[in-house]
Design brief:
With 102 residues, this protein is of the alpha+beta class. The chain is 24% helix and 39% strand.
């Protein structure tokens, strides 16, 4: 049996929790029908970042979109958020079972 999988993109963003409200608006404006937000902590070039204080913690946002929306979203993140927030953005090629959900 062959299960039909459809190509999509997953845009992932690790950033300051302070950016969350504005990011949610941009996600909606770019046509994202849903997203997942996860508290994030770790270490990187800026040192260690803990999630013990929600207002200063990091979050990880994952949104599954078609390639055109991924490009638009990443462009908006670059222009509107990168100058103001500590942020890491990447995209992944994925395949989904129900493309109509995204």
């Amino acid at each position: 049996m062959s299960i039909p999988l459809h190509p999509m993109k997953m845009v992932c963003v690790t950033t300051e929790a302070l950016a969350r409200p504005a990011l949610e608006l941009v996600l909606a404006d770019c046509g994202c029908l849903g997203f997942t937000i996860i508290p994030a902590e770790g270490a990187g070039s800026q040192g260690q970042r803990l999630a013990d204080i929600p207002e200063t913690a990091n979050i990880l946002i994952k949104a599954i979109v078609n390639p055109k929306r991924a490009e638009l979203l990443i462009e908006r993140l670059w222009k509107e958020f990168m100058p103001r927030f500590a942020m890491v953005v990447w995209e992944e090629d994925i395949r989904v079972l129900r493309p109509d959900k995204f």
